[in-house]
Amino acid sequence: MKIAIVVNSAWAAYNYRFNLALAINRAGHEVMFIIPYDSEYSEKLKKKFQCHNLYLDSKSLNLFKDIKTFINLLGIYKKVKPDIVCHFTIKPNIYGSIAARVFKISSLNNITGLGTLFISRNFTTDVAKLLYRFSLSFSKKVFFQNTEDLNYFLQNKLISKSKSALLPGSGVDLEKFKLSTASEHKDKFVFLLITRLLRDKGIYEYIEAIKIIKRRYSEKPIEFQVLGEVGGNNRTAIQVSELEGWVKDDLICYLGFSNQVEKVISECDCIVLPSYREGMPRSILEAFAVGRPAIVSDVPGCRDIVEHKINGLLCKVKSSKDLARKMITMMRISQEYRYKLSKEGRKKVECFFDEKIVIDTYIQSINNIARHEKII
């Protein structure tokens, strides 16, 4: 069978869906990616898989751009004739599912998170809900990454219960993200925030918490790191000038972008993510896999993995003061207690968030569709 994987960026396809594609290929299927080409990651994907360039502006609210995306998807599906399409992220889920329906192609959808549209809840949210309700009606199966997102779609009648299922995020490659022992003799305590630099990820709360901690512990060696993409066309994106100001004021150490996230995590003491809402935060899953405790907001997605005082700490959403309190608590507890939190985090990832669970579910779903529709 021909299986197409549609993702809103080549980077995400390579970093989050490559192992899935390899496994589907090993199961005897032909796999292709439909992605917006870039200068690096699409080329890496092309070395192993057939790829098709997709016109998609993932953050734009321009109707004409979205129509162009839909027409582009129609053209690609007509040309390559996939048997099953696996859609990820908002626009591929919506426009890809409708385009697949035109050619009677089966769809598997993955709601990776509700994002800014559902945090702000305005007219655009209502439009998105209508589009979701219509497009997902054509799907064979819709996967959700946390219980609250699933319940939201069910309560708002955006999806039928029979079509929906839970997945443990995108899973974690436990061979790549190995358990690493924290150094007990470092000369400083290191906090790390890994995220796209968006307001909704709690970056401002992180900065204000840092200011509180620095005032209180001016003589204590503490480093506050940030790893992730800056800028972009997201309307909640942090400006480069703001980031440069925080670095200049010695508030943060900006690490830029890395293809070796596991190494960066292994060199910190605690991961922080004061986000306003998540699907299933990959940075926290990866931190637990490496063996680092986490401090996250008590919001959907984050509280699905972080258990307060068991493998990390929960803080109040949009509260820099409570975030600072929890960060101070993490510094003040013993190395032994942090090690206990780390062990519990690793155990949880091994039991519930192994990437193999996600891959096996997808292959089973593909085989079920094939048997039911006699594609094989």
Key words describing this protein structure:
single chain, 376 residues, alpha/beta, Rossmann fold, 2 domains, 7-stranded parallel sheet, 6-stranded parallel sheet, 15 helices, 13 strands, 45% helix, 16% strand, globular
In short:
With 376 residues, the protein is of the alpha/beta class.
3D structure, described in words:
- The chain has 376 residues and is an alpha/beta fold.
- It has two domains: 2-171 and 354-373, Glycogen Phosphorylase B (Rossmann fold, 3-Layer(aba) Sandwich), CATH 3.40.50; 189-352, 3-Layer(aba) Sandwich (Rossmann fold), CATH 3.40.50.
- Helices cover 45% and strands 16% of the residues.
- It has 15 helices and 13 strands.
- It has helices spanning 10-16, 18-26, 41-46, 63-80, 90-102, 115-120, 123-136, 147-155, 203-216, 240-248, 261-266, 282-290, 320-332, 335-352, 355-373; strands at residues 2-6, 30-35, 50-53, 84-88, 106-111, 141-144, 164-166, 189-194, 222-227, 253-254, 270-273, 294-297, 312-315.
- The strands form two sheets. Strands 3-2-1-4-5-6-7 form a seven-stranded parallel beta sheet, sandwiched between helices.
- α12 links the parallel β11 (270-273) and β12 (294-297).
- α4 crosses α5 (90-102), α9 (203-216) crosses α13 (320-332) and α12 packs across α14.
- The model has no long low-confidence stretch (mean pLDDT 91).
